[in-house]
Write a structure and sequence with these properties.
379 residues; two-stranded antiparallel ribbon; 14 helices; membrane; Undecaprenyl/decaprenyl-phosphate alpha-N-acetylglucosaminyl 1-phosphate transferase
Length: 379
């Protein structure tokens, strides 16, 4: 038993049988189960009321596909956080306020995103709401400290403060949109979000004073995994505005912590972990600007990484797995950059790979059963 405890401590688990680890585990399981089970009734209701994306030249679906998956993801995430907080309340008032700011910003983005999915909103209005959500983090102390970023000069306080505000808004709004833009092939965003959440969770678990971040990431990882059960190709539902929930929350949580060091000093780790959506958005925006498009975020095309990979593989499943692999390799690089022990990195990669295989296999099995039932009904 002592050996098991020692082994767990090497993985960042201070007490294998303590309330802290139980809270994280239960948060993850609660989010996964609620999202997994909540999606079918949400899908049925969405089809009845017309909450669906119609087929077009940019989409892979050939029939109306419900786009309300984000509601189930959000429900699983929030309920799991309530469960985790009940088991292990964070007594530091400042951190509690920051967590509430993250949840409030995520709720605002979910609400506006859902309205946009169903009725359509202008890109400028959506950007304004994203800026407001980023400012909500800033006024509650979640920011990147420019003077703490390695290899950059230390500047005057006022100049550094302005640059810190700019970088924080760019980080939050940029990653929010990056995850949204990556959502083009079944399973890609859900898998990338699960990988990033799990890797950041393990990274945060190495520090004793990042319990709040660990709980939030456990809920986010669980809801992403539960959603993937229904979204791996062929998808029965898409997340719609759920991609902004993943992007915003990952960006915000990467700034959360009570360590004496600045969040900016450790920005390299989340940059590496979330390199895939960042690189995708960068190459898309640069390419559109080069073609003379003045508003690159408002002119969709097929130049995203998932479109390029899909053109080569010719298969949505292989495309998802290929991009998951890239995201996992980026996550492994991020963990090594943080100085996490190789055994911990290996076990994290095995857990992530095994979890993704499990939900993908369950989705394929369900699709085979559905197809067999359809053939029997025709006969």
């Amino acid at each position: 038993m002592d050996q098991l405890r020692i082994f767990a401590q090497h993985l960042g688990i201070a007490d294998l049988f303590g309330r802290g680890f139980l809270a994280v585990l239960l948060t993850f399981v609660t989010a996964a189960v609620i999202t997994w089970r909540f999606i079918p009734p949400v899908r049925d209701f969405a089809l009845r009321v017309g909450w669906a994306d119609m087929p077009n030249e940019r989409r892979l679906n050939t029939v109306p596909l419900p786009n309300a998956g984000g509601l189930a993801i959000f429900a699983g995430f929030v309920i799991s956080i309530v469960v985790g907080w009940a088991l292990r309340p964070i007594v530091i008032e400042h951190v509690n306020i920051q967590v509430l700011a993250i949840l409030l910003g995520a709720t605002l983005l979910m609400l506006v995103g859902f309205i946009d999915d169903q009725y359509g909103l202008s890109p400028l209005f959506r950007l304004g709401v994203q800026l407001l959500s980023a400012v909500l983090l800033l006024v509650n102390g979640l920011r990147i400290d420019f003077n703490a970023i390695p290899f950059l000069p230390v500047l005057d306080g006022n100049v550094a403060n302005v640059l810190s505000i700019f970088l924080t808004i760019l980080w939050v709004v940029g990653l929010t949109n990056a995850m949204n833009l990556l959502d083009g092939v079944d399973g890609v965003v859900g898998g990338v979000a699960f990988i990033a959440s799990a890797v950041l969770l393990v990274t945060a678990a190495q520090f004793t004073d990042r319990a709040a971040a660990v709980i939030l990431l456990a809920g986010l990882a669980g809801s992403a995994l539960g959603y993937l059960r229904h979204n791996f190709n062929p998808s029965s539902i898409i997340m719609g505005n759920g991609s902004t929930l993943f992007g915003y929350t990952l960006a915000a949580v990467s700034l959360l912590g009570t360590l004496k060091i600045s969040a900016g000093a450790s920005l390299l780790v989340p940059l590496l972990i979330m390199a895939l959506p960042i690189l995708d958005t960068t190459q898309v925006v640069v390419g559109r600007l080069a073609r003379g498009i003045r508003n690159p975020l408002a002119h969709p095309d097929k130049t995203h990484l998932h479109h390029r990979v899909l053109a080569r593989t010719g298969n949505a499943r292989r495309t998802s797995v290929a991009l998951w692999t890239v995201a996992l390799l980026c996550g492994v690089a991020g963990m090594f950059a943080q100085g996490i022990a190789p055994l911990t990195v290996l076990l994290t990669a095995v857990f992530i790979g095994g979890s993704l295989w499990f939900v993908a296999a369950r989705r394929i099995r369900a699709q085979i059963i559905e197809a067999a039932q359809g053939r029997r009904e025709l006969n």
